[in-house]
């Protein structure tokens, strides 16, 4: 498949990038804003996610109903999401509909932020917080992250808390929006069958008046905590274990070796933790992953099972971690390279997947990482690389969190 990378910067600092694929049968566009929970003042925790909702509530040109209707009329697959580090608004369409989708996306990036809409949507956000509050893993994860990052803003909850959302004022949201949703803090990523120069001209018309602010982010690696966290909840009946430890950052080449390492340890269905915990019935769930962030990264190891077995589950996890450096083999890497290469390639066959990878890479790295180069980096990972990253980022600095059923009094 022929793919050509394109790059342009508007006069106001808005970056536009694309992977043009003439033989593709669809096109995709995404507006990536380099802002998330870590960029919020603590008293405004959750404002980035709240803003994501508000972007669909109408503009000077469109009502909320217009936004939904026009997306549906062009058959768009559209949505948005917020993380600790970025917010994305995107749509995938047939090539002939790209112009309309870019117009809608560009328009909603300058929402009205009306107080009536704000007050109404606040109840939706609070309901979402309550919904996630019923998920045991989510409860443990959020508390563990708070303990792990301490006072650093990466401890912020993406949804915010009942208190911060209840106290949030629309004026505070508008101020945050004006600072963070600036032209020089947004990247527009495109992929698929498209005319790049035509889209750039359109974006200049739709977005060229946006102001730059020079907003930045402090991404220096911070000190994390290796505490123990014990939670109890009367609503849970299983035991939950979560370990969080430092890992490579997004811009660290060692993240490729770390990703393979995590798959050796916790790939569903065929991994060290699967055979040690799930196959023999000791645990119900076991998984691990690397979350490569801006300036830092985190390993996660998670397991759940009978509360009375949680001590043994943790002991087995630690044993597997201790043996990982000696037990991992070249055969392990060969299988995982092929599996990971298939996942990356499959995602790259669709413009929507390419657009997401392109936008994230530019937001974190400010550079284009072609699919072929990413595959080459994965394939170049050696056994020494994997053992090296395990040595550089040992699990002895892990925070260990547990969520258990609340003790029953005097049975």
Task: Quickly describe the structure.
Helix content is 44%, strand content 19%. It has helices at residues 47-54, 64-73, 98-108, 115-133, 136-149, 162-167, 170-180, 196-207, 255-266, 272-278, 310-327, 330-348, 351-365, 371-379, 383-392; strands spanning 4-9, 15-20, 27-33, 77-82, 87-93, 186-192, 228-233, 239-247, 285-292, 297-305, 399-405. It has a 6-stranded mixed β-sheet, with helices on both faces. A 5-stranded mixed β-sheet has the order 7-11-8-10-9, sandwiched between helices.
Descriptive report:
By secondary structure, this protein is an alpha+beta fold. The chain is built from 15 helices and 11 strands. Helix 9 crosses helix 15 and helix 10 runs antiparallel to helix 11. Helices cover 44% and strands 19% of the residues. Strand 1 and strand 2 form a beta hairpin.
Keyphrases for this structure?
five-stranded mixed β-sheet; six-stranded mixed β-sheet; alpha+beta; 411 residues
Outline the fold blueprint.
Layout: E1 4-9, E2 15-20, E3 27-33, H1 47-54, H2 64-73, E4 77-82, E5 87-93, H3 98-108, H4 115-133, H5 136-149, H6 162-167, H7 170-180, E6 186-192, H8 196-207, E7 228-233, E8 239-247, H9 255-266, H10 272-278, E9 285-292, E10 297-305, H11 310-327, H12 330-348, H13 351-365, H14 371-379, H15 383-392, E11 399-405
Parallel strand pairs: 2-6, 7-11
Antiparallel strand pairs: 1-2, 3-5, 3-6, 4-5, 8-10, 8-11, 9-10
Helix pairs in contact: 3-8, 9-15, 10-11, 12-14
């Amino acid at each position: 498949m022929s793919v050509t990378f394109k790059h342009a910067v508007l006069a106001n600092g808005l970056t536009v990038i694309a992977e043009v694929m003439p033989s593709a049968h669809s096109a995709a566009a995404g507006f990536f804003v380099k802002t998330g929970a870590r960029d919020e003042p603590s008293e405004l925790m959750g404002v980035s996610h709240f803003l994501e909702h508000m972007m669909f509530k109408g503009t000077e040109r469109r009502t909320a109903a217009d936004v939904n209707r026009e997306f549906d009329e062009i058959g768009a697959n559209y949505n948005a999401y917020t993380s600790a580090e970025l917010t994305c608004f995107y749509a995938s369409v047939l090539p002939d509909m790209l112009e309309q989708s870019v117009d809608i996306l560009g328009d909603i990036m300058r929402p009205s932020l009306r107080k009536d809409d704000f007050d109404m949507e606040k109840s939706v956000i609070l309901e979402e917080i309550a919904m996630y509050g019923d998920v045991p893993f989510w409860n443990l994860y959020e508390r563990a992250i708070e303990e792990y990052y301490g006072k650093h803003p990466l401890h912020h909850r993406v949804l915010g808390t009942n208190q911060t959302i209840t106290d949030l004022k629309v004026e505070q949201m508008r101020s945050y929006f004006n600072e963070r949703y600036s032209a020089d803090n947004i990247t527009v990523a495109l992929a698929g069958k498209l005319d790049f120069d035509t889209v750039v001209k359109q974006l200049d018309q739709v977005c060229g008046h946006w102001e730059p602010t020079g907003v930045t982010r402090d991404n220096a690696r911070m000190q994390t905590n290796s505490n123990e966290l014990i939670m109890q909840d009367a609503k849970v009946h299983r035991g939950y274990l979560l370990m969080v430890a430092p890992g490579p950052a997004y811009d660290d080449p060692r993240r490729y070796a770390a990703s393979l390492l995590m798959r050796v340890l916790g790939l569903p269905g065929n991994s060290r933790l699967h055979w040690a915990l799930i196959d023999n019935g000791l645990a119900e769930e076991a998984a691990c992953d690397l979350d490569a962030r801006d300036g830092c990264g985190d390993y996660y190891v998670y397991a759940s099972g009978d509360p009375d077995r949680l001590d043994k589950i943790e002991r087995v996890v630690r044993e597997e971690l201790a043996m990982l450096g000696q037990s991992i083999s070249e055969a392990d890497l060969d299988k995982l390279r092929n599996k990971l290469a298939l996942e990356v390639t499959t995602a790259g066959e669709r413009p929507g997947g390419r657009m997401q990878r392109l936008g994230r890479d530019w937001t974190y790295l400010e550079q284009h990482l072609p699919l072929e180069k990413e595959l080459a980096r994965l394939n170049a990972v050696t056994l020494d690389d994997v053992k090296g990253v395990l040595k550089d980022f040992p699990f002895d600095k892990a925070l260990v969190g547990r969520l258990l059923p609340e003790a029953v009094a005097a049975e």
